[in-house]
Write a structure and sequence with these properties.
single chain; mainly alpha; 9 helices
């Protein structure tokens, strides 16, 4: 980065240009093929195993489970409604975007802290993209699947599908909150492996809140977890293949720098 004698705006522009170019350049890591194969294996394992679980839940548990939940809109569920907002994609993405913006804007102002700020910016950038891309993918899946939310149609029907409807009532699969929560949990764990218990406890809490509030079927939250984790894994590979924030070991494992 240029010296402190340059103006604030030129330094900020150079930082944005460099960071954008780093993510858009061609992959260069010598071990990226091993990492790509590892990603493919793990993604396939998740897709097969969780897809089987989704089908099993639809057949044997979805309709029964939503019948056990308290009535929608029950006043005593106000704490659950607060908890569930912590998995709302807009809130999570805006919070991450705000942290990223503050970090980038501060970078030219504190030369002594630039290495730490640059590292933080890369990590927040990864967290943002690891959530945003699965969320976008989930919106497309929701539109294609057109699954009715619990009790849409007047009764518990796990197979109430009207594809390409595009209305909120038929946007049940996969759960967007679960996509956000599990993508964020995986991304945080990718950066700080020791936080995996807290990260996935948060994701599970968000998933349960969606069931209690009758916003989703159990298979919806499993589908959300699948989309979120696989999406965050793919974004991590994209960063690692370009040596941005992550490194790839000889066996294809990806680790945060």
């Amino acid at each position: 980065m240029s010296g402190t004698s340059e103006g604030y705006v030129p330094q900020l522009s150079a930082l944005i240009s460099e960071s954008t170019g780093a993510l858009l350049r061609s992959p260069s890591h010598s071990c990226r093929a091993e990492a790509r194969r590892r990603l493919a294996r793990h993604s396939l394992l998740l897709v097969v195993s969780l897809s089987a679980l989704i089908i099993a839940l639809m057949l044997a548990f979805d309709a029964a489970e939503i019948g056990l939940m308290p009535p929608r809109g029950s006043p005593e569920l106000w704490p659950v409604r607060i908890i569930t907002d912590f998995g709302k994609d807009a809130y999570v993405l805006w919070a991450l975007a705000a942290v990223f913006a503050v970090t980038v804007l501060a970078y030219p102002l504190v030369p002594s802290s630039r290495p730490a700020l640059a590292r933080l910016a890369i990590r927040v950038e990864y967290l943002f993209l690891a959530v945003a891309l699965p969320v976008l993918a989930a919106q497309l899946i929701k539109w294609v699947a057109g699954r009715g939310r619990p009790f849409v149609g007047g009764h518990a029907d796990a197979f109430n599908f009207v594809p390409f409807t595009g209305t909120e009532a038929y946007f049940s699969f996969p759960s967007g909150h679960a996509v956000t929560a599990f993508a964020l949990a995986f991304a945080v764990t990718a950066i700080r492996p020791r936080l995996w218990v807290a990260a996935f406890a948060y994701a599970l809490l968000i998933a349960v809140s969606r069931l209690v509030l009758l916003a989703h079927h159990p298979s919806d939250v499993v589908g959300g977890a699948l989309v979120g984790i696989v999406g965050a894994m793919a974004v991590r590979y994209w960063f690692a293949a370009r040596r941005v924030g992550f490194d790839i070991q000889a066996d294809g494992k990806v680790a945060a720098l």
